[in-house]
């Protein structure tokens, strides 16, 4: 172990360079903290790609109680109302905090907030920056603040491979960089590396986001919750690029409509039409495509000629494909966008493993329930970072000792997992498709190949989906199309997932139990 790494011992370690990790590091100041980022800071963070914005009751005709009601309705009975209320009431102050950090939010000529409308929101409450570049602008400001902060030691090009756990407590972290593996001795780790889109063929997430934080937590013994709930964004750009460019929901909030290749507006008779909850719109688009039609977002009338000014990022990639949104319909299709499930945490971000916290998309706080309300995710990451930091600061450091480096698993590669999950855990699911996914994933997850960790998370998602014999939010079973009378979160540990199906391959029968409270 080098003297430089040794000097970092006993500091909190934050794994992940997106908005959640950056904000947690800033909130921990002036306590010295180590921030790990596998790629150059922000390069593979989903936060950077966020076109939407932050949902917050910032206007005079809005109120956190109205925002909460919309959140609970979208969450389809699985939100933790106490947690959701606390986060939503803190949202306006979080926006103001970001503005003080230098985020250039869009303003009206009178200086007030320019607020957008997105699906399932009853008010215009989406705070944007540079139109459809909110994530990029927030990341710019946070990265600049972190690089200026003397208490943050930034380790770029460093990948966390495993957590060292003794008696259900964090005792260190094994990582690797270009020079090889090393251990940081620490009793406090914050996982802020979210996103699972890289586990699927079609996703709007960076391809490097494939559940690494979930795998670290699962192998450390942490409990995961609601893994079956995956949000498919209904309007990813239907072209050859992977990851898929996103056509933000704000375009529909500005009046754009969904049509098929015959020109029919197929959402017109649905409650909420194009601004229904994302799971409803995604299923409608999916079914239309299954009937042999292509689907388009028609923005020719609204926002029409203002499209390029309002949405410069979308306009740019459309023009690269030979499409002018002011005169041409935009081809779209559903793609994996956000994971409502994650590491089970309390309101302070504490997991079931002592010394392990989670913040951002990798966590399951209870805010999103079965279906995330649009633009609640960036807001959750910024708000919860403060509470996570306060909890980390108040935690016991513990006595640590130097540790030898154990055998290093190969770097993960999710390519073998993508077709399996895409086929079995898509917008519409059924028992046989999920069973096939479990049978395919189990031997990979039980091995030591580069696909083991991605397969493990895919397997846990599949087991959770198999157990939930109902349709709710982002989880839709064609063989169980109705929702159960009462909603119950799911929970799953690594031991539970592997133990539940350990005899499946040999016995030929699949029985993994019902929903676990």
UniProtKB/TrEMBL annotation:
- Required co-factor? FAD
Catalyses which reaction? L-aspartate + O2 = iminosuccinate + H2O2
Give the pathway annotation.
Cofactor biosynthesis; NAD(+) biosynthesis; iminoaspartate from L-aspartate (oxidase route): step 1/1
**Gene Ontology molecular function terms on file:** L-aspartate oxidase activity
Q: Which residues form the signal peptide?
A: none
Coiled-coil intervals, chain numbering: none
| Family matches, as NCBIfam families | nadB (TIGR00551), PRK07512.1 (NF005701)
Family (UniProt): Belongs to the FAD-dependent oxidoreductase 2 family. NadB subfamily.
One Pfam assignment: FAD_binding_2
Some GO term, biological process aspect, for this entry: which one?
'de novo' NAD+ biosynthetic process from L-aspartate
Cite the EC number.
Answer: 1.4.3.16
- Identification of the protein by name: L-aspartate oxidase
Q: Where is the Fumarate reductase/succinate dehydrogenase flavoprotein-like C-terminal domain?
A: 457-482
Q: State the source organism's domain of life.
A: Bacteria
Q: Where in the cell is it found?
A: Cytoplasm
Its function, per the record, reads:
Catalyzes the oxidation of L-aspartate to iminoaspartate.
Q: Give the UniProt entry's GO cellular component terms.
A: cytoplasm
- Where does the record place the FAD-dependent oxidoreductase 2 FAD-binding domain? 13-378
Keyword annotations for this protein, in alphabetical order, are:
FAD, Flavoprotein, Oxidoreductase, Pyridine nucleotide biosynthesis
């Amino acid at each position: 172990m080098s003297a430089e790494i040794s000097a970092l011992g006993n500091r909190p370690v934050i794994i992940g360079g997106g908005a959640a990790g950056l904000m947690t590091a800033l909130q921990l100041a002036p306590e010295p903290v180590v921030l790990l980022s596998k790629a150059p800071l922000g390069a593979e963070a989903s936060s950077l790609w966020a076109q939407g914005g932050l949902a917050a009751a910032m206007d005079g005709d809005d109120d956190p109680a109205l925002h909460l009601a919309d959140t609970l309705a979208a969450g389809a009975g699985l939100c933790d109302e106490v947690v959701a209320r606390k986060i939503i009431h803190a949202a306006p102050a979080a926006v103001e905090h970001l503005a003080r950090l230098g985020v250039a939010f869009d303003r009206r000529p009178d200086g007030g907030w320019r607020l957008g409308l997105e699906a399932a929101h009853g008010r215009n409450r989406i705070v944007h920056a540079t139109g459809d570049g909110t994530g990029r602008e927030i990341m710019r400001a946070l990265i600049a603040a972190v690089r200026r902060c003397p208490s943050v030691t930034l380790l770029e090009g460093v990948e966390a491979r495993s957590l060292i756990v003794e008696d259900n407590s964090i005792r260190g972290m094994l990582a690797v960089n270009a020079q090889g593996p090393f251990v940081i001795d620490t009793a406090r780790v914050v996982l802020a590396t979210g996103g699972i889109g890289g586990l699927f063929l079609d996703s709007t997430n960076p391809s490097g986001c494939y559940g690494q934080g979930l795998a670290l937590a699962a192998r450390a013994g942490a409990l995961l919750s609601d893994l079956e709930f995956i949000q498919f964004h209904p309007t990813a750009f239907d072209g050859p690029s992977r990851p898929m460019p996103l056509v933000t929901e704000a375009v529909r909030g500005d009046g754009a409509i969904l049509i098929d290749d015959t020109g029919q507006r197929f959402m017109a008779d649905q409650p909420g039409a194009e601004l229904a909850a994302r799971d409803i719109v995604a299923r409608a688009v999916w079914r239309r495509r299954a009937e042999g039609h292509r689907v388009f977002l028609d923005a020719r009338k609204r926002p029409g000629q203002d499209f390029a000014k309002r949405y410069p990022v979308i306009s740019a990639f459309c023009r690269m494909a030979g499409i002018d949104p002011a005169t041409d319909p935009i081809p779209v299709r559903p793609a994996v966008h956000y994971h409502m499930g994650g590491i089970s945490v309390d309101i302070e971000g504490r997991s079931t493993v002592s010394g392990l916290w989670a913040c951002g998309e990798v966590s399951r706080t209870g805010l999103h329930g079965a279906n995330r309300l649009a633009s609640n995710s960036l807001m959750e990451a910024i708000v919860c970072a403060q509470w996570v930091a306060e909890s980390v600061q108040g935690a016991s450091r513990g006595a640590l000792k130097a540790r030898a480096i154990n055998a290093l698993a190969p770097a993960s590669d999710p390519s073998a997992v993508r077709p399996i999950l895409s086929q079995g855990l898509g917008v519409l699911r059924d028992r046989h498709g999920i069973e096939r996914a479990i049978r395919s994933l189990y031997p990979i997850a039980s091995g030591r190949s580069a696909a083991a960790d991605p397969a493990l998370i895919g397997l846990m998602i599949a087991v959770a989906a198999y157990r939930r014999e109902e349709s709710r939010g982002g989880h839709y079973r064609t063989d169980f199309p109705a929702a159960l009378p009462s909603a119950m979160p799911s929970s799953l540990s690594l031991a539970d997932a592997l133990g539940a199906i350990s005899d499946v391959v040999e016995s030929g029968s699949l029985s993994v139990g019902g929903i676990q409270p």
